[in-house]
Structure formats: structure tokens, C-alpha cells
Amino acid sequence: MNASDRPINLVELAALAWRRKWWIIVPTVIVSALAVAYALAATSRYRAETVVIQRELKGMSGLSGQVARIGGLADLAGLNLGDSSKQEPMGVLRSRGFARRFIERNHLAIVLAQPGGDEPEDIRATVDRFKRKVLSVSEDKKAGLVTVAVEWKDPELAAQWANGIIDQVNAELRDKALAEAKRNIDFLRRALAETELVALQQPISRLLESEMQNAMMAQGNRDYAFRVVDEAQPPFKRSFPRRTMIVLLAFLMSLVASITGVVVAERWRQRCAARR
User: Fold this and answer.
1) CA distance 104 to 122
2) What backbone phi and psi angles, to 5 degrees, belong to 3?
3) Residue spans of alpha helices (H) in 130-197
4) What is the signed CA dihedral for 259, 261, 263, 264, rounded to 10 degrees?
5) Which listed CATH number (3.10.620, 3.40.50, 3.30.1890, 2.40.30) goes with 46-230?
6) Which of the residues 78, 111, 215, 270 could staple to 4 if both were Cys, CB 3.0 to 4.6 A apart?
């Protein structure tokens, strides 16, 4: 068996590394220095998190029969009696439309724009970058908790935006529920005044009472869709860059790559010598 085909042992590897130490030291030092420079120059980012729990928007249990009796009329009027979708709050929170409304309402387009642009950035690009790099939403279905995280270079703004997102979702869904409840109440009052059938008057009255309760609950409930469990606070530790990890990984990877290169070069030299 040729020396170039024989597995190298640790003693030979240590001896080879010592002979070719500068081939290992120089690349490792250069790469590590570049990693240090990057870690120091990279813009620090901070992650603020607010933890919330989703609330039940409407309690229409026990009224399904009444809804079914006048559901056809309600559909013709374009109303949503008894609609209590549990997916709507999370759908709104994760939607691009909400992200755009939050950016526009808080005048964040300039703040979020990439530096160096000569022209105003398309709002769609701003929304896309906001959802990819700034905002993240995670849900723990087992615990029933939702975490809204904002990562930004200013810790104060990161916490402000994380809390503001929940406030705006609650406000939007509350306003929508109030508008729907008012339309439903007007419809049910007209239906109650116009119907002469006793069999319909009772379910309409119950639905009217339920819609009035929904309106009152929405009117006085600041945490309409999400109740805050842990409000976001300005973080004091940066989430990026993790300087120690960056430098350590760069050092180890460059060290391994340099040693591997030395071993490959030595085996190549041995094979070339064996062919002569």
C-alpha cells in the first residue's frame, strides 16, 4: 500500500501540522480577523417580544337554532349573525394587509427603507422586508399563547412596535365587531317590528339581545381579540450579531479547513512522488 493511500494517524497528523504550521496559522488568523471585523461592524439588532392569549370574540352558543331560522334573511341583508371565526385574529395578525396598514398608520416607510435608495421604495417591498426581517409571529397551540416579536436596531422602537401591533389588531377587530353588531342590531330591530309571527319574535329577540351584548363587550374592551400576558419591554441585550459565536465559528471552520487543505496537499505530493 502506498503511503498516499494509507490512513493518517494522529501522530502523523500532528507532525504534519507542525511542519506546515504557517499554512494553518495564517489562513486561520486572517479569517478570524475578518470575522472580528464583521462582528464589530455589523449593525446591532434587538428583539422585543410581547406574549398574548387569544380571546373568544363572540359567544353565540345556544343560539344556533335561532340563527338558522332567520339565517336566510340575514344572508340576503349581507349580515354575519353568529359568526365567531377563531381564525380571524391570527389571520389578521399574520396578513400582509395588516402589516401594510401598520406601516402606513405609523409612518414607518421611511424608517424601514433600505439606505442608499435614490427613489421612494415601493410599499410592497417595504411590507415584504418588514414581514421577513422585522416581524415574526409564533403560536403555541398547546399553551394557547401567541408571541409577537419585533427585531430592530433600536430597542425602544422594537418594544414600541411589538406592543403597538397588538393594540392595532385589537382596535381593528373591535371596530369591525362594533360595525357588524350595529348593522345586525338595526336589521334585527326592523325584523322584530315587521314580523307578526310569535315563533319568529322570540328567536329574533334573543339574537337582538346577544348582538347588543356583543356591542357592549366590544365597546368597553381594549383587549378585544388578544389579551396581553407579557408586554414587550426594550431589550438590553442584542439578538444580532452574536459576536462571540461568529468569531468562534469562523476560527473553528477556518482551522479545520486549513488542516484539511494541508492533509490533501501532502497526500497529493506523496502521490506525485510515488509516480516518479
Assistant:
1) 12
2) -65, -30
3) 155-194
4) 160
5) 3.30.1890
6) 270
Q: Which residue has the cell 373568544?
A: 56
Domain extents in the chain: 10-42+241-275, 46-230
CA nearest to 242, candidates 99, 70, 47: 47
Calpha distance 24→255 (Å, rounded): 7
Which residue, chain included where needed, has cell 317590528? 193
Tens digit of each residue's pLDDT (9 = 90 or more) over 53-107: 998 765 444 344 444 445 554 554 445 555 556 788 999 999 999 999 999 999 9
Cis peptide bond prior to 120, omega within 30° of 0: no
Single pTM value for the model: 0.74
Instruction: Supply 153's cell numbers.
Output: 436596531
pLDDT at 76: 42
Q: Which residue has the cell 395588516?
A: 98
Per DSSP, 133 falls in state I
